[in-house]
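Researcher: Re-running this chain for the archive, since the previous output was lost when a drive failed. Same request as before.
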Amino acid sequence: MSRINKIIELLESKQPAYYIGTGDFTYENGKKLSQTYVDYIRLNTEHGPFDLAGIDAFMRGLIDGGPTKSGHRTPAVIAELPIDGTDEVTVRCNAWMIKQLLALGLHGLILCHAENPGAVRAFVESARFPFNSIGVGDNLEQGRRGHGGEDNASNIWGISKEAYLEKADVWPLNPDGELILGIKMENKRALLNAEKTALVPGIAFGEWGLSDMSMSFGYRKKPDFPLPIELEEVRTKIWNACKKAGLYFLGIVTPDTVTEMIDRGLMLCRPTEEWAVEIGRKYTGKNLS
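Model: Regenerated structure tokens:
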């Protein structure tokens, strides 16, 4: 173990990271998922309840059920924000959600419906402490996360408050950072701005969001794979925007597609079945869960 955040550890080792999602924010579920077969857990706070007390209990369950088989205190945990990245003002007005979730000791966040660069800049700045200077002036302003957010989070990470303040910055902009931020470009408006949005400093990965993008194109039901041509073209365009900006890309993998998607460069994977992870890890020579 070289990192607090297992996602970052794997990506730095050029290994894919696999995740599952949950909306069950209880101590019992945290304790259960502490030994999950995946590398990180994604909290559904976009459509599920924004239950801060529940997430706090979930994180403590992860600790009490740990450490993980790989030696980490907990699996990495990231949450989908319930706000949309419609514009800068929307994100600024709802930045309290970013600060509250990070104060609970989460390892990362995802901004859904990231429609333009201004919204994403506000997202990154809200997740950073003001003294973090890397990237400031290069399309980023000073961070806006405040004093006090380190108290509980440092306890969850199992480090001192002073150490947390040093480590709780966005990776890979800060190579020593332990926070990972992602964006979902999942509607037609986001598609138009994808190349510019992906270039905002401080973002580590992007995804396209099949379900919402499908609705944006008039589909009432999420299409099955193989995708309709128009949606495959959209995914390719957003993936290429991420590649051009140096972002990792997130997508779905099945037992039949996992090796192909890894060959295409997919590094953050949502498996449809557990054995897709087994196949992927064997393929990349990574067997430790």
